[in-house]
């Protein structure tokens, strides 16, 4: 039932404050991640020395964000790979590596094949972050953290992604805490930030009308470039995947620092460039990347908080995103990108919930 919404995708975008709260429920206390959130005592994480994350599509992008969190908070090496590559190559597994899969459906053929291969290779243990409790992935993994997003009908993943990120942040903090890489004060700060996530998502959704207006400018576009730095790079990848999936606009994403190494050649007045601007030490670097684009006549769509000091100026279309703690930025910045791709698809008149050539669950290779 789509309720008041025209499409499932929009209904699912708007469900995010509620389902993120459901994902946090029972996993955090006032000041820490609860030790039983993986169904067993989380002390098993003390022996983890490496993390291998395997997934496909949107779930893969969530894994890419987690790499930044795990290396930053837990100081552990983390690699992220698409399942269809992992399953067919010779993989070197360092001692005491955690095998972590991400999947909305828990039925993605390549991800299941990767898990079966991993069991033969010998890992410390396998953990699945998944939305479907009765899925094959959950059944075959040693440990599970459910995302609690509820059924997702739209082919374009929205609430599944932001709940995966929430579950990954819980996992990253749990690992960091068990590895004694995180002080109790810092853990309490992070957990406290997480608790405010549903309210921030609610606030981000308030830009819906403004983003709808912006989307009209994409009616005749055939290409788009997404830029991000740090954990915002995978969010740029996710924004570009969303746009291409449902509006059929060819979109690419690059880490902003790569611009000069090739993609800058694509920039002209016909190329919209979409950037999620984080509020961190990389802000000034990103601003200079944006100037490079503006100097070549590119049309800039900038998503930033109001303190980033980026306003509507010639060639810059600015949309405000709530100011949040740095750790939450990738999750909150996802919302405007979902809204943008949704409204652009509506403007283009495509089948939003059931884009051509795609299936919700990719159960064949
Ligand atoms: O169910 P899974 O998370 O394993 O699915 C993986 C991908 O097929 C999926 O995320 C796909 O990329 C979505 N259509 C993206 O919106």
Describe the structure in your own words.
The mean pLDDT is 94. This protein has a 5-stranded parallel sheet, with helices on both faces. Helices cover 42% and strands 15% of the residues. The chain is globular. It is of the alpha/beta class. It has helices at 8-14, 16-24, 57-74, 83-86, 109-121, 136-140, 159-178, 184-195, 197-205, 208-215, 232-247, 283-294, 329-348; strands at residues 50-55, 78-82, 97-103, 125-130, 143-146, 223-228, 250-255, 272-276, 299-304, 316-320. 5-amino-5-deoxy-1-O-phosphono-D-mannitol is lined by residues 56-59, 103-105, 108, 111, 155-157, 245, 361-362. The site of 5-amino-5-deoxy-1-O-phosphono-D-mannitol has 15 residues, from helix 3.
Keywords:
single chain; 365 residues; alpha/beta; 5-stranded parallel β-sheet; 13 helices; binds 5-amino-5-deoxy-1-O-phosphono-D-mannitol; glutamine-fructose-6-phosphate transaminase (isomerizing) activity; Glutamine--fructose-6-phosphate aminotransferase [isomerizing]; cytoplasm; aminotransferase; transferase
Topology (SSEs and partners):
Blueprint: H1 8-14, H2 16-24, E1 50-55, H3 57-74, E2 78-82, H4 83-86, E3 97-103, H5 109-121, E4 125-130, H6 136-140, E5 143-146, H7 159-178, H8 184-195, H9 197-205, H10 208-215, E6 223-228, H11 232-247, E7 250-255, E8 272-276, H12 283-294, E9 299-304, E10 316-320, H13 329-348
Helix pairs in contact: 2-7, 2-9, 3-7, 3-11, 7-8, 9-13, 10-13, 11-13
Bound molecules: 5-amino-5-deoxy-1-O-phosphono-D-mannitol.
The site of 5-amino-5-deoxy-1-O-phosphono-D-mannitol has 15 residues, from helix 3.
